[in-house]
Amino acid sequence: MSAAPQGGRRAPDAVKPSVDAAPAAASSPPARGIPVKAVVAAFVLALAAALGGLPDFQITLVNNIGLYALVAIGLVMLTGVAGMTSFGQAAFVGLGAYATAWVGGVWALEAGAEGAAWLPWAGLLLGLALTGLVAWLLGAVTLRLSGHYLPLGTIAWGLSLFFLFGNLGFLGGHTGLGGVPAITLGPVSLAEPRAMGVLIWVIVLAALWMLHNLLDSREGRAIRALKSGRVMAESMGVDTTAYRLKVFVLAALLAGLSGWLYAHQQRFVNPTPFNLNIGIEYLFMAVVGGAGHLWGALLGATLITLMKQELQDLLPRLLGASGAFEVIVFGLLMLLVLQRYADGIWPTLQRLTRRFIRRDSPSRTHGPVAELPRRTLAPRGEVVLAARGVTKRFGGLVANSDVSLEVRAGEVHALIGPNGAGKSTFFNMISGVDDPTEGQVELAGAAMTGQPSRAFAALGLGRTFQHVRLLKERSVLDNVALGAHRRGQAGWWRSMLRLDRSEEAALLAEARRHIERVGLGAQVDEAAGSLPLGSQRIVEIARALAGNPTLLLLDEPAAGLRHLEKRQLAELLSQLRAEGLAILIVEHDMEFVMNLADRITVLDFGQVIARGTPAQVQADPKVLEAYLGGVA
Ligand code: ADP
Ligand code: MG
C-alpha cells in the first residue's frame, strides 16, 4: 500500500538534460480547459440538487457516502500521504458515536425536552475529546512500531475497542444505546435525513477544503516528507515523531466526527458498524479511490458504498444463501484494482481528464513577497564544525576510528578515501543521523552529541544524501521549499484556514530563487523523480540552500553529472564559499576535489591517514598507497 512506481506518469519532455536547458518558458503548457474550481463548484451544485431532489431512501445512501468519506479522507492523510496504514479507524468512529449516544441517553432525562438541544453538542465535545485522547495514547505506543507491526497494532486496538463497546454495561452491550436525540440548529431540527444530509456534506466539504489547504502548505510538505522515512524529514528540521502523531490524531478526529454524525442520523448505536470488517472497508475506500488523493477518498467511498448496496441484494439471491459475501468480492476487487491501478482510481481519472481540466501551477506567485529571515554567517575562518576523536563501531567493525576534523567558514573541506573507508558513516555522526560510540561533535560552538538531526538543522547544517532522498512525485519546487521548512512558522490551523498565504509565497519565492541559482529554473514544476539522477543531486543542493545554512555537507554531489555540469557545480560551490559558507564534501572525482578544495582529509579503514592542502595530500605516499593499493 506504499508508494508505487511512477513510471507511467512522467511527461514526455521530462527526461531532457537539465542544467543547461533554457530558463523558465519551457515547462508551462498553454492554459486551456475548465478551471478546477469550476469543476468543484459543479460538483457542489449537483450534490445540493441531489439532497434537494432525491427520494428519502436514496438520501440515506448519499448521507452514508458522506459519513464514510469523512473517515476515508482521514485515512488518505494517514496512509496515502503520511505512509501509515490503519485498519482500526472504525473504532474511532465508534468512540465518537458512543460518546454522544451516552450523553444523549444519560442526560436526556435530567435535561428534559427543553434542554435537549445542547446534548448533541456536549456529545460532540466529549466524542472529540475522547477520540483525540485515545488516539494520542494509542498513537504514542503504536506509531513507534515499524514496518508491518504498525498495521498489526491497529488491528489489535481495533478489535479491543470493538469488544469493549459490546461488553460495557453502560453502553448497552450488544443491543446498544437508543434514544439519541436529533441535532437541532436554532429552530431547525435535523431529524429528517435530508436536513441531516446538509450538515454531513457541509462538514465533508469543509474537511476537504481544509485538508487541501493543509497539504498545499509548509506543514503539508512536512507531512508528505514523513512517507520517505525519518532521516530526510528530520534533517529538514521536521520533528517526525510529533508530526506522525498529529496526523494520526487528525485522522482519528475525522473518524470520531463521522461517528457523531452517524449516531444522530441513526438515533441509536450498537457495536456492529464499528468492527474490524468495517475498518478494513474504510481502508479499501481510501486505497481504491487513490490513497494519496483527498478526492480519491470521496470517489472510493462512493464506489464501495454503492457496490456494497448492490452486492448485498444481489449475491445472496445469486448464491441462494444469506451471508456477507460482499466481503469476498471486495477482496478480489481490491486485488484487481491494485493490479491495474496501483495508485487507486483517482490518479487515472486525473490523467484522463488532464486535457479538459486546468490546474494552475502553485509556483506562480503574484505581487511583492516578503523576505524570509536570514541567518548571519560565521566570520570567515571561524570553526563551524568540529569533530573530536569520533569513533563508530558496528559490532566488531570500526567504521570510524578516532577521527578529528574541523570545517571553517569560507572554506571547502574535502573528505576522501576508498570505498568503505567510513566517509558516509562520518557524515552520519556529524549530522545527528547516528551517534558516535565515542568522541564529540560541535556545531557553531554547541556540543551536539546525542542530538537529533533536526537540532543540527536548527543550528544551520544543510545536507545532501549519497542516495538521493527526494519526494519523487512532488515538483522540484515543492522539494526545495521543504528545505526552507524551518524558516516559516505557520502551523496546522493557519494553513488549513489559508491564513499562511504571505508566508507561503515567501517560502516558494525563496525556493524558486535557489532553483534558479543552481540552474534548474526550467524544471521547477516538474516531478523531481523525472529528472536525471545528476540533476536530482543538484535539487538536493538547492533544498539544502533553501534552509539558509552556515554549513553544507555534500555526499558525492558530482556523481552522475556530465563534464559541463560538474564545472557548473564547482562554480556554484566556489561562489558559496566566497559568500562565507563552510562546505564539507565527500567526492570520488579527484580532479573535481583537487581543483575545488582548500583542505583535504583522507580516510582509510576508518582512520585519518593524511590531511593538508591538495598538493600536500597528492604528494603523500600513504595516500598513494591507499588508492593504488586498492583499486587502481
Ligand atoms: P564510505 O562512505 O567511505 O564508502 P561507509 O561509511 O559507508 O564508507 O562504510 C564504512 C564501513 O562501515 C563499511 O565497511 C560498511 O560496510 C560499514 N557500515 C556502514 N554502515 C553500517 C551499518 N549500519 N552497520 C554495519 N556496518 C556498517
Ligand atoms: Mg559513502
Layout of helices and strands, plus pairs?
Elements: E1 34-35, H1 36-53, H2 56-81, H3 89-115, H4 119-142, H5 149-167, E2 184-185, E3 188-189, H6 193-215, H7 218-225, H8 230-235, H9 240-266, H10 276-290, H11 294-319, H12 326-340, H13 345-352, E4 357-358, E5 383-394, E6 397-408, E7 411-416, H14 423-429, E8 438-443, E9 446-447, H15 453-458, E10 461-463, H16 476-483, H17 492-496, H18 501-517, H19 533-546, E11 551-555, H20 563-579, E12 582-586, H21 590-596, E13 599-604, E14 607-612, H22 614-619, H23 621-629
Parallel strand pairs: 1-4, 7-12, 7-13, 10-11, 11-12
Antiparallel strand pairs: 2-3, 5-6, 5-8, 8-9, 13-14
Helix pairs in contact: 1-6, 2-6, 2-9, 2-10, 2-11, 3-4, 3-5, 3-9, 4-9, 6-9, 7-16, 10-11, 10-12, 16-18, 16-19, 18-19
The structure holds adenosine-5'-diphosphate and magnesium ion (MG).
Q: If you compute it from the alpha carbons, what radius of gyration comes out, rounded to the nearest whole angstrom?
A: 28 Å
Identify every distinct bound molecule in the structure, by name, code or SMILES: adenosine-5'-diphosphate, magnesium ion
Largest sheet: 6 strands, mixed
Strand content: 5-15%
Query: Whole-Å distance between the termini?
Result: 45 Å
- Cross-sheet strand order for the largest sheet: 10-11-12-7-13-14
Number of strand segments: 14
Bin the helical content: 40-55%
Mean pLDDT: 88
Shape: elongated
**Spans of 5+ residues with little confidence (pLDDT < 50)?**
1-28
Structural class call reads: alpha/beta
Count of helical regions: 23
